[in-house]
Amino acid sequence: MAKAYERIADELRQSIRAGRLRPGDRLPAETRLAEQTGRSVPTVRDALRLLQAEGLVEKVHGRGNFVRRARTRVQRANSRHQWEKDRARQPAEKRARTGVAEHDTGLTVDDLVFHAAYREITANADIAEAFGVAEGTELIERSYRTRYSAERAPFNLVTSHLVRDMVAANPDLLDETKEPWPGGTWNQLSTVGIEIDRIEERVTARPPTAEETEELDLPPGTAVVVLRKTSFDTDGRAVEVSYSTLPGDRTEMLFTTHLERW
Q: I need a labelling partner for 27 at 20 to 30 A (CA). Which of 119, 196, 202, 222 fits?
């Protein structure tokens, strides 16, 4: 038998899904819901916590509970890599019209807000091993955030690493003010004679940190998917190592594998 708070949550859930309560609507105060349902305020709070965990309701400090607005869903397919490689050699004007965020969401350049930040760091043991370089090697660490202009949270948190000496022949690759770069990393590397030959991706899931929960605006209990991507050039050398932290409530990963016929 359903518990009292589960029945209250179910009534609110049905109202949300039927459109009687719309995204952005404020729910009645907890005391008012308690009067309407004939239950205690703690029971109502348990129901609201359940809906918060499902991502249907969000609590705004000092204002109350609101129907959560659906966030833009992102479909990240492995076919995007060939699309990125093909795009890297297109004319600059065409490259500037769209990027991977638009490719994955169906939005346009004008819909998006983009931010990039660069800094120089030295390779720790893990990154050094991935690149096949000595620990302490100078790297360029690049952080990217892209969000839909109508939302406050980015689609993901991306941190990319390049070996500084590998790209320093083009000073523009050390300059964050050149972002957003038409054609992205694939085109950037092509300017110093690097062609990406293959991509290796490792996917794990874990609970988010407090900072990730806040920046990605995650509902309580939502996991994040961490994608570690290593790009190799035509000589088998690792040329970029990146980490993407993806929100589990609005990210779909699609893998299509073409098999040889008998």
A: 222
> Options 3.40.50.970, 1.10.510.10, 3.30.1360.120, 3.40.1410.10; which CATH number does 74-254 get?
3.40.1410.10
Give the CA distances from residue 205 to residues 72, 139, 200, in Å, rounded to whole numbers and listed in that order.
Answer: 20, 26, 17
* Long-range contacts (CB closer than 8 Å, 24 or more residues apart) made by 153-156: 153/71, 153/215, 153/216, 153/217, 153/247, 154/215, 154/216, 155/72, 155/74, 155/101, 155/104, 155/105, 155/246, 155/247, 155/251, 156/74, 156/216, 156/244, 156/245, 156/246, 156/247, 156/251
From CA 201, how far away is CA 231, in angstroms rounded? 9
Using one digit for the tens of pLDDT, what is the confidence trace for 133-157? Answer: 999 999 999 999 999 999 989 999 9
Q: Flag whether pLDDT at 81 surpasses 90.
A: yes
> Structure tokens of 129?
């091993």
Centroid of chain to Cα 251: 7
Domain boundaries, the chain: 4-67, 74-254
Under the banding of pLDDT at 50, 70 and 90, the label for residue 12 is very high
User: Are the CB atoms for 73 and 250 separated by under 8 Å?
Assistant: yes
pTM for the predicted model, two decimal places: 0.84
Cα 247 off chain centre by: 6
